[in-house]
Amino acid sequence: MYISHFGLNEIPFSIAPDPLYLYMSEHHREALAHLQYGIKRDGGFVLLTGEVGAGKTTLCRSLLDHLPEGVDVAFVLNPKVSVIELLETICDELRIGREKQGSIKNLVDRLNTYLLEANARGRKTVLFIDEAQNLSTDVLEQLRLLTNLETNRYKLLQIVLLGQPELLSILNRQEMRQFSQRITARYHLGPLDAVEMGAYVRHRLEIAGCHRPLFPETLNKSLWKLTGGIPRLINLICDRALLGAYTLNRPQVNNRILRQAAREVLGRLHPPGKGKKVVLAVALAALVLLLCVAMLWYWKRPYSLPFGFGNDFFVQTQRTAMVEKSPMGIVPAQVGLDDAVPQRWPKDFAASQSMEGAFADLAGLWGLAYDTGRPDYCSYASGNGLDCLVSKDSIEALRKINRPAILTLYGDEGTPVYVVMSSLDGNRAIFIAGGKKYELALSAIASHWVGEYLLLWQRPPLQRDILQPGEKGASVVWLAKTLNELGLYVATGQEVRLEGSLLVAFRRFQLSKGLTPDGILGPLALVYLNTARNLAGPHLSQLGAS
């Protein structure tokens, strides 16, 4: 084939998840740091999502190659199975003896025995599940129950889920709140930007033994538009383009060869500009139709609005409807906002803001000096008496938590940037990005934010990460004392288990904060308890902190 023609040692653009070819973009480094942090924690779930072909499996294979000694791994490649089939697969991966047709109880008991013995030998067990968006609700619930396997001090099983964006939609359902609260680290792996894509292509060619530009830099923009920065598509088109250049006896790929390769891989491409013209024509037609309907309605109104239902009522009703429809609860800038506050994304806003820079800004608000050379953000926070909460929610949820947070925003090309929301007042906020402060209307980020955030908080000195109803320990005593301080419960000093009137009081607290009243003392509930206690540290709203 073309290997000898271009002086290569092997095919550079295979779609196999070979860790040797992993290109560590900034996003991949951050994703790897989240995975490493999550695996270091005791139990729970670690979540890595991304588009098809974004490099999740390759990143995971690289992680497996660098796991420390004393870690046993089970890997599930086909998650479209029943509960029993999943448990059988896990047992087989860990070489646990089992009956051919065992029950769920028997399989869980055998797994629990294995995990207890492994823990006694000082070994940790990690379960990786690829294509996790295909897991059924029953299987997800069984996985949640597996995280209950524990000793008095440690969870026995760490579970890493790799999935497409559909997995986020599944876990955001109301009935999955208990599952979501057990996710200790999560990251969404986005596509490469145009600059990273050029470096990605060069990296793979160099690993394969070629150090000359087979893809001129002038092709970067075209290749990025064809692939959207998705590594798998880049591999497929580049492989076909090299084959085309070899067939034509060319020393490198040109634009004509690249576009022909894209046609063969992706199917027929629209002629340049044709797609834009069609979209523009449809948009203009829709606008004309909308104007006609509006004018017809105005002229044909048989009567005026009743008294008390004038323009003010219409604007307020419109604002209410928009807030209800918006997942963030953000009112668009055109309705009732102060015109003095910028309502559009400034050109220089977060132009090159990385997660490292944003975390340094957030740490600074807590009085910490973060070294940007360290990618393990949450471990740094833990070493300074803080903890990370990485989640996905609404502006109103962050308003209730009342702590500064890093928001993951997405530019027009889908490239993520990270900014710190340091202050929040009504429908406006102050953001820190690139060492500068911006006061913006929330509508300026409404179309760029899907709810992803990271914030720091003060974790109390508890023995365990999650406390379930009916369980006992020092965490129960701490919860009773905390609710007593808040005037929500009368502590007796005899509390042993999370049950009875203590459990009822805690569930009432959860319900008052908009949380599912499941009685589980997890990270999110602890954060809301911290907010209620008004602990020291930076706040989004000084009024809410008083």
Can you tell me about this structure?
The chain is of the alpha/beta class. It folds into 5 domains: 26-189, Rossmann fold, CATH 3.40.50; 194-266; 274-299 and 309-325, no CATH class; 355-457, Cathepsin B, Chain A; 474-545, Muramoyl-pentapeptide Carboxypeptidase, domain 1. 42% of the residues lie in helices and 14% in strands. The protein has 20 helices and 11 strands. The strands form 2 sheets. A 6-stranded antiparallel β-sheet has the order 6-11-7-8-9-10. It has a 5-stranded parallel β-sheet with strand order 2-3-4-1-5, sandwiched between helices. Helix 5 (137-146) links the parallel strand 3 (124-129) and strand 4 (157-163). Helix 3 packs parallel to helix 4 (104-120), helix 8 (194-207) packs across helix 9 and helix 10 crosses helix 11 (255-266). The longest helix has 27 residues, at 274-300. The model is unreliable at 270-275, 297-327 and 329-339 (pLDDT under 50).
List its salient traits.
single chain; Rossmann fold; six-stranded antiparallel sheet; five-stranded parallel sheet; 11 strands
Write the layout of secondary structure elements.
Elements: H1 26-40, E1 44-50, H2 56-65, E2 71-76, H3 83-93, H4 104-120, E3 124-129, H5 137-146, E4 157-163, H6 166-171, H7 177-180, E5 183-189, H8 194-207, H9 220-227, H10 231-247, H11 255-266, H12 274-300, H13 311-325, H14 355-365, H15 377-382, E6 387-392, H16 395-401, E7 405-410, E8 416-425, E9 428-433, E10 436-441, E11 449-457, H17 474-485, H18 500-512, H19 523-533, H20 542-545
